[in-house]
Amino acid sequence: MTEQYILETENLTKEFAGFVAVSDVNLKVERGTIHAVIGPNGAGKTTCFNLLTKFLTPTRGSIRYKGRDITELRSAEIARLGIVRSFQISAVFPHLTVLENVRIALQRKRGGSFDFWRPASVLNVYNDRARSLIHDVGLSEFENVLAVELPYGRKRALEIATTLALDPEMLLLDEPTAGMGHEDIDRIASLIKAVAANRTVLMVEHNLSVVANLSDRITVLARGCVLAEGDYNTVSNNPEVREAYMGTGHA
């Protein structure tokens, strides 16, 4: 275990009633990189993510974050350490505005209970930081729009903003461009690249063009095992990877 890697797993395994969903996965995520986990349907990608964020408990194996064994910690404890999974933990309230959503996320970072019963002015102390985050994700013109009224891609950007409000050192993105059109995909991909400038990003992503353009390193899973690892050229030219995808071109 070295300081080069912010997150490492050793022989990470998850079994469900005899079915092995993830088998002896050894993952090493370098600090300050964008690391993608890809693989065909049923490869174990989501299960692996659920293990890393402790939505599931490993059958065996270990997980280390910044050199610390976090295998036995609960998901909330892991989030407090700086590993935040976007689109799962982020607090987006559909009938609050973009600004109100980000202010509440900043309040969560402070800790304590929500101030719903207190005057709205209580949260005004967060306005400057909230507006900065909103600007960073390209939503300044939507500041006073209700979350429920945002186009799908913009709603995803808001979810990233609320996640960033928790100030994660490591951001886990679960299929960040799923269900998006080309314009939204390009916008979110650019946003991911920007937010990765001073943090580590681990993402599960189906869109291979996004993976190719963003990722420093890629881990390919198949049938719960690591099939290949390396940069995009390395894994895309791997005969076993090509066979696993059966020419579909989709993770």
Topology record:
Elements: E1 5-16, E2 19-25, E3 28-30, E4 34-38, H1 45-52, E5 60-65, E6 68-69, H2 75-81, E7 83-86, H3 98-110, H4 127-136, H5 152-164, E8 170-174, H6 182-195, E9 200-204, H7 208-214, E10 217-222, E11 225-230, H8 232-236, H9 239-245
Parallel strand pairs: 4-9, 4-10, 7-8, 8-9
Antiparallel strand pairs: 1-2, 1-3, 1-5, 5-6, 10-11
Helix pairs in contact: 3-4, 3-5, 5-6
Walk me through this protein's architecture.
The chain is of the alpha/beta class and 251 residues long. It folds into 2 domains: 173 residues, P-loop containing nucleotide triphosphate hydrolases (Rossmann fold), CATH 3.40.50.300; 73 residues, no CATH class. It has 9 helices and 11 strands. The strands form 2 sheets. The protein has a 6-stranded mixed sheet with strand order 7-8-9-4-10-11, with helices on both faces. Strands 1, 2, 3, 5 and 6 form a 5-stranded antiparallel sheet that branches. A hairpin with a 2-residue loop joins strand 10 and strand 11. 40% of the residues are buried.
